[in-house]
Structures are given as C-alpha cells and as structure tokens.
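Weekly modeling sync, notes
Attendees: S.R. (lead), two postdocs, one rotation student

Agenda item 3: backlog of single-chain predictions. S.R. asked that every request posted to the team notebook include the full sequence so nobody has to chase files. The rotation student volunteered to paste the first one in as an example of the format we agreed on. Action items at the bottom.

Example entry:
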Amino acid sequence: MDWEVVIGLETHAQLSTKSKIFSGASTQFSAAPNMQACAVDLALPGALPVTNRVAVERAILFGLAINATIAPRSVFSRKHYFYPDSPKGYQISQYELPVIRGGLIIIRVEVNEKSRPNVYKKSIKLIRAHLEEDAGKSLHKDFTGMTGIDLNRAGIPLLEIVTEPDMRSAAEAVAYAKTLHSLVVWLNICDGNMQEGSFRFDANVSVRRLGDQAFGTRTEIKNLNSFRFLEEAIQYEVCRQIRLIQNGGIVVQETRLYDSNRGETQAMRHKEDAHDYRYLPDPDLIPLIINKDWVDKVRRFLPELPDAMRCRFTKQYSLLRHEADALTTSQAFAEYYEQVVSKVGITNAKMVANWMIGGLASHLNRDRLSIGETRVSAEQLALIILRIVDGTISNKIGKEIFGIIWDENASDNTAADRIINSKRFKQISDISSLEAILDTVIATNPKCVNEYLSGKNHAFNALVGQMMKATQGQANPQQVNELLKNKLSKHSK
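Predicted structure, as returned to the notebook:
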C-alpha cells in the first residue's frame, strides 16, 4: 500500500540584536554561564519586561520579504510550563495575535526519481511568524548526579516561523529549510549559525494512506540543528510510523528527539496542546502596535531578494541559472561579484563568474573562510582579470598570481602588477619574437611535426608544450596556437 508523508516545520531563528527581547542583557555567544542574565531574565520580583524595538523591526523585515500580512496589533502572551531553565515558570510568546500572518516561500527541490523531473518548484505557505523569548539551558554533561543551569540564553529574541503541512518528503523539508536559512541570513536578521543554536527546527511528521483526506497523527521532532539531521530524522520517523501502523499499532501524538549517533528518534514526552500551556495575555506588556509609517520605514532597508537578483544576473550578465545560483549564495558574495564586474566591464562578467565560482570559492572552502574574510579583494581580483584580458598575462599565470596574493594576504590593490614585474610574468606577445622561437622548436622536433602532419593531433599539443617550455611559460598561448597552425600548414604543402 502506498503512503503519503505530511510535514510541517517550525523554525526558531535567533534575531540579530545586541540585547535580549525584553531586557538590556547582552546576546553575545559563549559568555561564562549566567554572566548575561539580568533581573528581568531571572524573573526577580519587580523586574518588568520592555519590548526590544530592533527585534520587532527584524520581524517586520521578514514579513515584507515573504509578502505576509504584518499585524497592526499583536499581543504577547504567557505560555505556562515549568522547566528549571525557565525561571519565570512561563515563556513570553505570541499566540492568538502574532506579528506576522501568512506569507509564501518558493523552494526548488532536486530529486533523482525517474518519474519526476530532476528539479521542480513548490510554494510553501506559512501560517505565522511570531516573536518570543528563548529559554535557558540545562547542562548535564559536566555534573555528576546534578544538572547545571545556564540562563545566558534566557530572553534571547526568537522569531518562530511556522509552515502549513505542505511538504511531502524529507527532500522538500530540507529544500525549504535551506531556502529559509538563506533568506534570514540574506536579510541580516539572523546569523544562521546552527552550531550555536541560532537556527533550529522542529519537524511535525505524519503519514496517511495515499488518497486519504484526513491527516494522520503527527509527532514533533524537536531541536534539529543541521540539514542532515533534519533529513535523517524525518526519514527515520516516516519509516517508524509506517511500520507501526502496518503492524497494527497506532501513532501517538508526542514529542520526540533525534539521536544522531543511533540514527533514530526517541520519545521525549507526550505532545502538549495549546490549552495545556494556559496561554494568557502578558499583563506587563502592552499590545504591539505597528503602523504604516513604521512598516514603510523598515521597507527602505529591504534588500534585493535572492530570486530577483538571480533573475537579474541571468539577464544582465548573460549567466546560466547555476552560475547565478552560485553567485547569490550570500548577499556579500553577490556584492563582491558586482564590485569586480564594475571594474572589468560587463563584457567580462562571465569571466568574473568563472573566477569566483572556481578559484575564489575553492580557496574560501579550503581555508574555511567567508567571503567577508577573503584574502583577495574585489579590486585585486579585478586587476588580475584585466591583465588577462589585455594580454599581459595568461589565465594560468593569473591563477598563480591569485595564489600568491592569497598566501601573502596582500593589502595593496595593485598587487597583481607588482607580482607581474617582480616575477617577470609578463607574457611574450611580440609576433616576431614568437616566430623566431617557434622556428627553433619546429626544427628541433621533426618527429612531432611529422606525427601532426600524419593526422596525430596530440603532437600539436606537444609542440605547444615545447614552446611554453622554451619561453618559461611566458608566451601568449593564443598567439602561439595561431602561429604554430600557420607554420605547420606551410610544412604540409
């Protein structure tokens, strides 16, 4: 019997603010335990919360980017539960009146199934995105028979983004997660650091027999902090639920955790419903009022979005889709590209793309650096490309110069010219000089000449190699090829 998978995701994105959502305590990561927990975070008597304006503006910016409705009035509520890492005994969140409603995210999914295209697009509808505070952290590893409590994360601003149950495979869920991750980083509202807990998922998973209209009972897999774990956890949970139903059992609504070492989900607790949390409006926080003027002010900070930029790159710079995709993996990478193109000219835009997708990206990946940490500036790369275009150096020498600048971490924008002069990298383009050397190469390699004339094309490359050796790699390759063909054609007559 065929089964259909139904998936919805809840994503917690930590907003990039310097202070917490309801207090002035720092949000800096890796501080000593409990050094960034103030009276408000500790719920000391008389301490009152105040909403962080920047956190609200981050939420508005996200709502604008996904074409959602930004609520003119939203309310903060108390979500009651008792955990040791939540000193108040409740979490300040939003329930009935969230700040963002609706919205759409378009994903591109790659599949290997023969029955479907390799890539297809799908729209994922969002139910809501609401502001809330994070809880603290319980520490078990370093304490024997006890649990340590670190309240540095208590009060960290989160935007919880909730989808409709629109995804039908782990591949779609991962595609959505990656798209959302790219978007919040692109908007600069979240740093996206999953290792530090800045971006994490809860996956709601259920299965139903193909053709059924009613949803099956769902389970929620909590706190997934990598795309790989998200995919593995969903795949395992789908198989577990199907096996359970086929063996006569029933799926219980519960919260589960994913054990990445065992590659399986494990029951954590029964899944609570909204009424279990006894939501009520927080009496210490007034309703959040967002007027049109505030929205318009935030709108001015909305950058060109990734999809729009990809379309523009393909048209303006005559790039292929995969090239535009690679260049828009981050806003900083795209800005670097356009900086280089502005200096070398739009006619060389394709060449810039090849350099960035190839040489620059490989160096960044090798040294685990972001584009913001690159050791070759846009100005330095532009000069390398210009020297290739004007025939001063070959593409091969250009790559060597790039490597030298990278290793030197040179600060001068004219580093390419300095290296060309000091290393004598300037290629020989004078035709009379090249012809004289070519005559010698042809005269001293009669075997290669005869092989080429007899139809063995590999001999041509051997002669080119001898020419480059004779000039210590400084001969202009394009001119060498043209001159050599002309000279060999005369030998064949």
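Discussion: group reviewed the output briefly. Residues 19 and 25 are 5 Å apart (CA to CA).
Action items: rotation student to repeat for the remaining queue; S.R. to check formatting next week.
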